Amino acid sequence: FQNASIAHAATNVASGSEGTYYVDAWVYDAAGNSTYVSAKSVKYDITAPAGNNIRLSVTQTNQSTVTVSLDAADNFSGVKSVMFCSWYGTYSESFSSKTVTTGSDGVYSTTFNINEIVNSADNKAYGYDGKYYFNAWVYDNAGNSTLTSMVNLTYDKTAPTAPTFVIKYID
Length: 171
Fold this sequence. Notes:
Layout: E1 5-7, E2 19-28, E3 34-44, E4 50-56, E5 60-61, E6 65-73, E7 79-88, E8 94-100, E9 107-113, E10 118-119, E11 124-125, E12 130-140, E13 145-147, E14 151-155
Parallel strand pairs: 5-14
Antiparallel strand pairs: 1-2, 2-3, 4-6, 6-9, 7-8, 7-12, 8-10, 10-11, 12-13, 12-14
């Protein structure tokens, strides 16, 4: 398109409300001919998605796997992904994350193996006994995100110490 120009009309959606906006364009050449370029819809979404009811399959266990689930929704642009996070001790001490892109009826889930949560000091996983913490980031298709509340799991794989029995014989 030599010597072509594009006619357009701008709408300021930055101060407008969320919604679907349509963009139309026409291309004109120097002779006055025009071509319509198809309308495109643009969704304007500034509301963070919802991430509610984060939960664990168990809260105390001696088994190394735990399933983390939550209810996620975004009524406008849709949920893009959920990044589940887990850590032991302080957040920077050991950390693991998994991203899930599909859910079933708004429920997103993944399974963590406690023995795979990596210690950031030496990049090894130990599966320590103790408290493990879980939360999630929910992302929508417009780039908005929300952080869920935290839940915790007590992992105890150490057997209790056997008691000492003393038998006294009394005559």
